[in-house]
Amino acid sequence: MSLVRLPDETLDTFFDGRLQIVQTKKGYRFSADAILLSQFIKIRKNENVIDLGTGCGILPLLLSQTTEARSIIGVEIQKGLADCAKKNVTLNRLEDRISILRKDYRALRDMFPPGSFNVVLSNPPYRKYQTGRINPSLEKAVARHEMKGTLEDLLSIASYLLPPKGRCYMIFPALRTVDLLVALRRVKLEPKRLQFVHPLVREEAKWILTESIKDSGVELKLMSPLFLHGEHGPSTFSSSVDRII
Question: Which residue among 10, 53, 81, 147 is least packed, with the fewest CB closer than 10 Å?
């Protein structure tokens, strides 16, 4: 499909141009955290996946190239972002694997029975509502602050959508690690793999990547920290991230 890009849109390409992702210039745009999460996630062949808060569809689009998931549903509450995600799916001819649902994830109980998905993903808003500066752009504010649902709301629906032993993957600010781990265990999503991500070797961690398993035993693997830039320059892992930061 040929690309018809509007004046207010930009284009990013991945995988030697095989994947094209359009975004608006002024609205909410995906960033390095989405790339990091996509490379942390493990999906097995023919699994069904749902992404809560998909934005422009960045996670489903990337995972369509790196996994053999049977289907990926991206859920997005904001019309502009949902429309952008649908455009990206069509642009890359991925309608047979990715579908975009414009809906509040808190209402998904009305659409799906319990345990409908093998894997739940989310790169959720990082900041509690009414903390920090609220961006004047409503699209950016909703994407960055818990205005349309709290962390607890998100994890509650994630647990509902997963069967026993289903997996949940998230990226979250390292400063809110305790909030995340406590909230995960409260809904029977047991953290199994954690990795802290540091911009530089001598800097504090900025993000935490988590894999949790529903109704699992207590056994945690703390992975070696990931440094996006070492003492001698960018790591090989950060090649895709550097273009976004």
Answer: 10
